[in-house]
Amino acid sequence: MSNNLRERLRGTGVALVTPFRRGHIDWESLEKVIEHVIAGGVDFLVSLGTTGESVTTSETEQRQIIDFTIRINRGRLPLIVGIFGGNNTGEIVRRINTFDFDGIDALLASNPAYSKPAQEGIFRHYLALAEASPRPILLYNVPSRTASNITAETTLRLARAHERIIGIKEASNDLYQICQILQGRPAGFLVLSGDDFMTLPLIACGGDGVISVIGNTAPKPFSDLTRAALRSALTEAQRLNRQMLELYRLLFAEGNPSGVKAALELQGLCSREVRLPLVPMSDAGQALIRRELEQLGVL
């Protein structure tokens, strides 16, 4: 991967929502959201991660969403695609081998779920994906969802095992583990926060940025926070972090992306509709988010 792309994947990435209306993808709203986050100054886009409800979209819908996002983005920002997680290594490799990656800069692959593999299994899983992929891969460690953790030792082993494994989205919330990765990583290996509230401490420890949920609804203030932290402007970063602290919590209080879609509905960008088994955020929860958005100045 070029050093230019590595640099462009530092900062604030946004895990885009997938808007729905009456059960179908709302293309007009998806365009609004994409333009909103780009205008807000984010650094890169992530399509069809957890926040994009990839697990309840069909392969046909996923291809349509990716193609639409590529068309609206028009190459303005790097685009990462997050549909290559799962617990069936062979099936993911098959999909990579038959996938059209034109317009896509990198893949985000979550740790295998449910089967709870040993560290050696996790290592071999990601190595198989790297061997198959024509694009760089970001590991995604999210034990709260997958019930398996990529240890720092395994992450560092993977970082050295294949040139296409270029970084990790770390959502373990284990700052000691993250610091171990930062201390031992090879040059150029990216360490990104997988949780908005961990962005400031992760960057303070030497990390490179975040793949964000709050960036959908508050792209400018959150991008400003990330940039302040990356240039070691700690006072400014702390001030911005305090302003968004309660919003971090509220966006996840009734599940993700239910919370951030409720925020986007208030901003006129998309409805709060989600697909089962998720349910839309309650009116009471949305009212609390409204207050925070108003105080932040984005509503």
Which keywords apply here?
299 residues, alpha/beta, 8-stranded parallel beta barrel, 13 helices, 47% helix
Itemize the secondary structure elements and their pairings.
Layout: H1 3-8, E1 11-15, E2 20-21, E3 24-25, H2 27-39, E4 44-47, H3 59-73, E5 79-81, H4 89-97, E6 106-110, H5 119-132, E7 137-141, H6 143-146, H7 152-161, E8 165-170, H8 175-184, E9 190-193, H9 199-204, E10 209-212, H10 219-230, H11 234-252, H12 258-266, H13 283-296
Parallel strand pairs: 1-4, 1-10, 4-5, 5-6, 6-7, 7-8, 8-9, 9-10
Antiparallel strand pairs: 2-3
Helix pairs in contact: 2-3, 4-5, 5-7, 7-8, 10-11, 11-13, 12-13
Describe what this molecule looks like in 3D:
The chain is of the alpha/beta class and 299 residues long. It has a single domain, classed as Alpha-Beta Barrel (TIM Barrel). Helices cover 47% and strands 13% of the residues. The strands form 2 sheets. The protein has an 8-stranded parallel β-barrel with strand order 1-4-5-6-7-8-9-10, surrounded by 6 helices. Strands 2-3 form a two-stranded antiparallel sheet. α5 links the parallel β6 and β7 (137-141). α7 packs parallel to α8 (175-184), α11 (234-252) runs antiparallel to α13 and α12 packs across α13 (283-296). The longest helix has 19 residues, at 234-252. The radius of gyration is 18 Å and the shape is globular. The N and C termini lie far apart (39 Å).
